[in-house]
Design brief:
Strand content: 15-25%
Radius of gyration: 21 Å
Helix content: 10-25%
Structural class: alpha+beta
Shape: globular
DNA sequence: TCCTCTAACACTTTTGAATCGC
DNA sequence: AGCGATTCAAAAGTGTTAGAGG
């Protein structure tokens, strides 16, 4: 792990020099598909727009898997984990700590729409979380992942061996994350370099890259253009080359901000270490966040049964089986956490006695994602 | 005054129903 | 009738920016 200078952590998470964009955990190996693009953003401090109605990520999460059992079913999920307990602000061309983080919004988990599918399906091609949306609306009813603006997060991927999202074997969960996917949630872009990079790479932003619409055209609307020809389904290359961008230099700050900054960096380092575990090999620069489950056998009668309780709007460890006290938890530490059922769609099951006494039928992934699956301390 | 958030905007891309040809 | 390819309109998604609100 390289040293972390002020200017580096002020803008983005540290990134090792040589990067292999995959991590093997047990037999399962996960690779971040568009890692180069992520790195391009990471170097200048990735920002993700969040809106009331939900905004897609760009770059979006795209991963590939290997080492799965070809005929076993898996559910793939992703959630967002706070990097630290601070709120940030963009000031003088750089990010500064702006105080303590807001209380965590409701925890949401996004399940890949192909879930559940057999290992052979997941390994056949990379999977994209393109339709994952981020929102700052804590009352969101669409299942989007709720984040706080001006806070930092990273996506965390879960590979769960299960026949369906509702018959999850809670012992067979593996979790992965990638350092370069850390981002700051914002309601409007702060760093103009990020804006430029997004416009350069995001096809939806072409209207702003070409033709010079902007504020002028805003007042000179001239009607819709003819519909575009149907594009190829897989045409986009989101991993295209990006210009080498430099970190913004650190400038002088008020003394208090300096202290906050130092505290933030310390916290950031700490959470970074815990979130992505310890580097085992200097060449293995991507870290995973393995769930420490090997000492805890959740098979059969020890499977946790999702209780028929109302939806918990905030992250909680209420249903977790903790091998340690919650006070020992690092902010980024994973806690296994079964999904409580949605209030209106719960059904009782009569078979599958090996896993759950109750089965919860959800109409779609949006329903599912509204309920916390993996919580983390807050 | 400063900071954050929202909505409207022009434009591109994606989606899905309708149509056509075999 | 069934299937796949094509067309086209509508919906979805993009960053910008003025203005509102705390």
């Amino acid at each position: 792990m390289p040293n972390i200078s002020d200017s580096q952590t002020n803008v983005s998470m540290p990134l090792p020099q040589s990067v292999s964009h995959s991590y093997q955990q047990g037999c399962i190996r996960m690779t971040l598909e568009n890692a180069e693009l992520w790195e391009s953003f990471h170097r200048i401090g990735t920002e993700m727009i969040i809106t009331k109605h939900g905004r897609r990520m760009f770059p979006h999460c795209s991963i590939s898997l290997s080492g799965l059992q070809p005929f076993a079913s898996y559910v793939i999920m992703v959630d967002m984990v706070p990097v630290d307990s601070f709120k940030y602000k963009w000031k003088r061309e750089q990010w500064e700590v702006a105080g303590k983080a807001e209380p965590q919004p409701p925890c949401r988990t996004y399940m890949h729409p192909d879930s559940p599918a057999v290992g052979g399906h997941w390994m056949k091609q990379s999977m994209s979380f393109l339709k994952l949306k981020l929102t700052n609306n804590t009352l969101d009813q669409h299942g989007h992942i709720i984040l706080h603006s001006m806070h930092r997060y990273y996506p965390r991927f879960h590979v769960i061996q299960a026949d369906s999202p509702y018959t999850v074997r809670w012992g067979s969960v593996q979790t992965f994350s990638f350092p370069e996917t850390v981002f700051t949630a914002v309601t409007a872009y702060q760093n103009p370099k990020i804006t430029k990079l997004k416009i350069d790479h995001n096809p939806f932003a072409k209207g702003f890259r070409e033709g010079g619409t902007h504020s002028h055209s805003k007042r000179c609307r001239s009607g819709k253009s003819p519909p575009a020809k149907r594009p190829t389904e897989d045409g986009r290359d989101l991993c295209s080359h990006s210009p080498g961008l430099q970190r913004m230099p650190s400038t002088s700050r008020p003394a208090q901000a300096e202290r906050d900054q130092a505290f933030s960096q310390q916290s950031l380092r700490r959470s970074h270490l815990s979130a992505w575990a310890l580097e085992q090999d200097s060449s293995e620069s991507i870290h995973a966040e393995p769930l420490e489950l090997r000492d805890y056998d959740y098979s059969y009668e020890e499977q946790m049964v999702p209780a028929s309780v109302a939806y918990q709007p905030y992250r909680s460890v209420e249903y977790a089986r903790l091998p340690f006290s919650s006070s020992e938890l690092d902010p980024a530490q994973t806690i296994l956490h079964p999904p409580p059922p949605p209030p209106s769609t719960t059904k009782l099951g009569t078979h599958q006695q090996g896993y759950h006494q109750h089965h919860h039928q959800h109409s779609n992934t949006s329903d599912w994602s509204q309920y916390p699956l993996f919580s983390y301390s807050c």
